[in-house]
Amino acid sequence: MTDDITDEREAVFAANRNLLFAAAYDILGSVTDAEDVVQDAWLRWQGADHEAIEHPRAYLMRIVVHRAVDQLRKARRMREDYIGPWLPEPLWTDESAAEPVERSGGVALGLLVVLETLSPLERAAFVLREAFAYEYDEIAGILGRSPAAVRQLVHRARGHVHARRPRFSADQREAQVAAERFVAAAVGAA
Length: 190
Fold this sequence. Notes:
By secondary structure, this protein is mainly alpha-helical. The protein is built from 9 helices and no strands. The radius of gyration is 17 Å and the shape is globular. The N and C termini lie far apart (37 Å).
C-alpha cells in the first residue's frame, strides 16, 4: 500500500517537473540554481501532508516560486559586492539544443537579461502570467499577495520590459516563431 502511495507521489512530481524547472529557470536564469530549487521542492513534496493538498501542481509551483524568489534575492545581495556584469547562463545541454537558440538570435538569453531588471516579485509574477498564462488569482495564491497587488506587479514588470524594447520592430512571423521556440524550450518540448 505504501509503495502505491509513493509511486503516485513520484508520478505527480514527475508530471510537473519540467514545468517547475522552467519556472525556476525563468526566474533565476541559472540551470544549477533552478535544479537546486526543483530538488528542494522534491524534498518538501516528500515530507508534505498529501491528504491536505487539494491541488498538487499549485502546491509544487508555490514552493518553487517562493524558493526561486528567495534564491534570487540572495544572489542579488551577493552581486552587490561583485563589480562587473551579470548575465544568465544559457539553457542547453548539447550542441543540437543550442542551434534553435542561435538561429533565433538568442531570444531566451535576451529575455533573461531583460528580466534581470525586474525585482524578484515582479519577475516571478511576470513569468507566471506571461510565460505560463496563470490567472491573477492563481499568482496571488502562489506569491501570497492579493490579486490587485499581483496586477500591479505584472503592470510594473511590463513597463520595465517595454522600456527595454528594441529600437526597431521585428517581423511578426519571425517574432512568433522565436516566441514559440522559447516557450517550447521552457517547457521541455524542444
